[in-house]
Write a structure and sequence with these properties.
heterodimer, A: alpha+beta, three-stranded antiparallel beta sheet, 3 helices, 6 strands, about 40% helix, about 25% strand, globular, B: alpha+beta, Rossmann fold, 2 domains, eight-stranded mixed beta sheet, five-stranded mixed beta sheet, 10 helices, about 30% helix, transferase (chain B), kinase (chain B), HprK-rel_A (chain B)
């Protein structure tokens, strides 16, 4: 089982545009365009690593959602995308 | 001193020798050529540009020179060079002016990184800049041509040049390449406009350059702050729409539209954020110049 955490959250430049967010990532020089849930994922991963289940649980509480398997799949995809972009890092359970 | 104050012979000596050093917005450009047709065209089309002082640094040194081809021994070809390098394949001599102008634009887009470069037309009205960012084919050159003959000061039909730290935009009024049907539209709509020769067979079809108004060139040192960002799109037969655009969308469009956004990194992110937050953002769909002009006049009044 993997966990993820946002390793450079404090270095990100975040601008709020009425609930949509532009995020500048100094390490890559890229600008990302996120919705509220996309940014919230980064926010809850700032600090200690969380597993997919915990992340989905936090999101469903925050956004008043009923998580289903599709939701889990989408969040897993988002985490993989964030990892590829260098926004978050994966931590193996035994590390 | 202006180019128009030079006789054709004096201009020919400069172009064939040390180069014609002209002031192009915040840059100086040196052009060398011996092509008689191009010399005549530059005498007319560059008439209002000022010569750069002798002690001023010239950012870009370009040449348009004849090119011999083994494959086409009888073709009259030319080559555009910047600092001795040729970014384009040779083209026919008739395309010399278009190639020179595109070449200079390419050099500006590739080399200027102290300013944030938007792919955008820019005009000034009532002391503030109206930015018209658009991709090629959106009609921004034709729209700029129309606006600059209806009371707007031309900054550029191609580049929004922004000082990222202070937010000022700089004028860069250069020849504007009208393409294909736009040439006739402008000839009909703006009979007072000064157009260069029609140049057929370019990569973009037939091109004719429109000369910026004298006032726009003479006020080239007057930068201005932006106030409006309008993303224009000409659509045949479309009813006029000038609609508010969410700032987040404007940010995204501007960031992806800028030539050097990623090069400037954090500086560009901050600059685009400030730009969008300080401007009214709209999208414009139009098919008719008069109604587009009326809508932009209303937006930029007062």
């Amino acid at each position: 089982m993997n966990s993820w955490y946002s390793s450079h959250f404090s270095s990100l430049y975040i601008e709020n545009w009425d609930g949509e967010f532009t995020v500048f990532q100094p390490e890559s020089g890229k600008t990302h365009f996120l919705n509220e849930m996309g940014l919230h994922i980064l926010t809850i991963l700032d600090g200690s690593p969380l597993r997919l289940n915990t992340i989905c649980q936090e999101l469903s509480v925050h956004f008043s959602l009923q998580p289903d398997t599709q939701f889990f799949g989408k969040i897993a995809q988002t985490l993989q995308r964030y990892e590829a972009l260098g926004l978050i890092e994966r931590v193996k359970e035994n590390e | 001193m202006k180019v128009e104050q030079l006789s054709l012979d004096e201009l020919r000596v400069l172009l064939a020798g040390q180069g014609l050093r002209v002031k192009m917005g915040p840059f100086n450009l040196s052009v060398q050529t011996r092509l008689p047709s191009l010399i005549h065209q530059l005498h007319q089309m560059y008439a209002h540009y000022s010569l750069a002082d002798e002690d001023e640094i010239v950012e870009f040194h370009v040449r348009v020179i004849p090119k011999r081809s083994i494959r086409q021994p009888f073709a009259r070809l030319i080559r555009f060079e910047v600092d001795g390098r040729s970014p384009f394949p040779p083209v026919s001599v008739e395309q010399a002016l278009a190639t020179l102008e595109w070449g200079v634009n390419l050099v500006i887009a590739m080399r200027i990184n102290h300013l944030l470069l938007f792919h955008s037309a820019a005009v000034e009205r009532n002391g503030h800049v109206l930015l018209l960012p658009a991709w090629p084919g959106s009609g921004k050159t034709t729209l700029s041509a129309m606006l600059m003959h209806r009371g707007y000061r031309l900054f550029s039909d191609e580049f929004g040049l922004m000082a990222p730290e202070i937010g000022d935009f700089f004028p860069l009024p250069r020849l504007m390449p009208l393409k294909n049907q736009s040439i006739k539209i402008i000839r009909d709509y703006l009979p007072e406009a000064i157009l260069g020769p029609e140049i057929p067979g370019t990569l973009k079809g037939t091109v004719a350059h429109i000369r910026p108004p004298q006032e726009s060139i003479e006020r080239v040192d007057e930068a201005a702050q932006p106030r409006w960002i309008v993303f224009p799109k000409w659509v045949a037969g479309a009813a006029l729409r000038l609609e508010s655009l969410p700032q987040s969308e404007a940010f995204l469009l501007l960031a992806t539209n800028a030539f050097n956004y990623e090069v400037l990194g954090e500086t560009a992110f901050d600059a685009v954020t400030r730009l969008v937050r300080s401007c009214e953002c709209r999208k414009l769909v139009y098919s008719d110049f008069d109604s587009a002009l009326a809508a932009l006049d209303e937006l930029t009044d007062g």
